[in-house]
Amino acid sequence: MNPGDSMSALFALEPRDRTREIRDWEMPPRIPAPRHRHAAPCGPWPWMDLRSDFFQLAEPSQSHTVDSSWRGYPQNLFPNWTPDQARRGKITGQHGPPVTGTSSVYKCDVMPDGTFTAYEEYSVTDEDESFWKAMNGERPPMRVRTLFVDNMTHPVLQMLGTTFNVEPFFFTSSLNWIPSRYQEEVQPGKGDHITVTLTFIRTIQNPLTAPSTPRNSSETLGWRGKQPDPVILDNQVIDTQSPLSLSSTGNILLLDLLALHLVRTPESSTIISYHPESTWQTTSAKRLNSLVHGVSQSVYWQKIFEKSSDPTFVMLAILWYACYAWDEALEVLYGHINWMESRVISTNDMDLVRELHIIQAHLLHYASLLNDFQKSVTFVLETKNPAMDRKSYDPHAREVSRELMKTECNNLLSEIDRLERSRLMQSMRLKNVMDLAFATVNIEDSKDMRKLTEATVRDSAAMKQISYLTMIFLPASFAAGIFGMNVKEINPGTNGTMDHYVEASLVLTVLTVWIIVALQRSSPFHEPGQENNLWVRLCWPVLYLRRRWPVSRGHTVVNKNPA
């Protein structure tokens, strides 16, 4: 597929699944967190629990016969894979592929001259032996055969694994969404096996918020009509393994999977592509098969297939699909960030601030995904095909093929670098929007604080006026209180005297001071360490005078001594 072809035209061909009613549509589930330690066979303990599993040295097997029956996979070809390991890797068990059901396999052959044949579909139901016979039958002359598997059942997994001697790590990394890339079964001059498993971002339209008339990406970016209201999902949290819902257009950025296993041989190579079940809403096998078949219509790539017989170019063409998906997803995200900028400027919505943090977390996660993508392409570039090193292969054709591989891988690496720079630019723009949102909130808070300060100043001025009025009338109130006393010195004929007034005032004043000091935990009248005892605090006058008395006597004695 020519990298210069229209990306929007490519993804516009994506068929919609009309079998499911819109009202029954659900958000794709989160993908499992990848266990990178189980990504490649270089790890000596595949899918082992090192905390509980114990190893026992087994006696070397005396039999060198290999069980060719597909029902024994993976133990028939890889004896170190115990049933418990296969269950943990989801090859078997309730979380693995179903034992019964119908699996669809789409086959497309690339002929020796670089042309593509019409694809053929196999519907494998349960333990259909006809598929096993078709896979093991004699092939006509061809360069590479591609097999795209949808709804993989356990029998189909075993048939493919046994037929092509597939390392179980390919299936475990695919079933568990673990990015991986490795080479095995290397035979100089004969061939090898290479596996590339990577996750990437793809955009889909949420049918619950889809417009009645779909717009392409360029129209969406250029649209200046009424902006839609934000669609914030209540259950959307900062979880980078879950799909990201964009509130501006209703698009969803979800994680997709490319799981490719290439068996390279001098005569006829094979590419196996695994596709998760429809619950994940990833790219279907039929869809990717049609896109690969469309590579034959690209003049650019047809010339490559004419110059080189290396089957790795077919895998490289499939990797371009992830690049296209990344580009479209970042394009949609770019338009969404533009919309959020305008919303932050015009409104002070805290839901937008929350969504900003969610998108920023996903952008940081996308950096690691793009890094895995770059490493996968570099791995394809550096892992040369051993089948091309055989003596019968034309040295000039080998050199031309490797130069072509270097050029095309560098082209794809250049696109990945552009995607990373685009992601970084969007992350920086998003940070700028977040700063703008917080600055807007601070400005609003400053305005509110200014209004509050002005109101406080006005209240303090009013209180000051009340204080002045109180001070003006205080002498008159004091005089009125004096002349209103019922003592015989002022009002003859009463029983009270001025001595009674002074005695009552002194007693009440002393009692008030005593109670106030006793109720205070921290006071200079209390001795340190006695603050928590209320009964001790009630005796504070006695205790205080007792502490002060020796000091006073000491000073008196010192003063009496002659110098």
Describe the 3D structure.
With 563 residues, the protein is of the alpha+beta class. It folds into 2 domains: 68-210 and 222-423, Beta Polymerase, domain 2 (2-Layer Sandwich); 498-560, no CATH class. It contains 14 helices and 8 strands. The chain has helices at residues 7-12, 83-88, 129-136, 154-163, 168-175, 217-222, 285-294, 299-307, 312-346, 350-382, 395-483, 498-519, 534-538, 540-560, and strands spanning 102-110, 120-125, 144-150, 180-187, 191-205, 244-245, 251-264, 269-275. Strands 1, 2, 3, 4, 5, 6, 7 and 8 form an 8-stranded mixed sheet that branches. A hairpin with a 5-residue loop joins strand 6 (244-245) and strand 7. Helix 3 runs parallel beside helix 4, helix 9 runs parallel beside helix 11 and helix 10 packs antiparallel against helix 11 (395-483). The radius of gyration is 41 Å and the shape is elongated. It starts with 6 loop residues before the first helix and ends with a helix. The relative contact order is 0.09.
Please name the defining characteristics of this protein:
8-stranded mixed beta sheet, 8 strands, Beta Polymerase, domain 2, 563 residues, alpha+beta
Number of helices: 14
Percentage beta strand: 5-15%
Q: Architecture of the largest domain, according to CATH?
A: 2-Layer Sandwich
Low confidence ranges: 1-20, 212-234, 555-563
State the total count of DSSP E strands: 8
Tell me the major beta sheet.
Answer: 8 strands, mixed
The secondary structure category is alpha+beta
**Order of H and E elements:** HHEEHEHHEEHEEEHHHHHHHH
Task: Tell me roughly what share of residues is in helical segments.
Answer: 40-55%
CATH superfamily of the largest domain, please?
CorA soluble domain-like
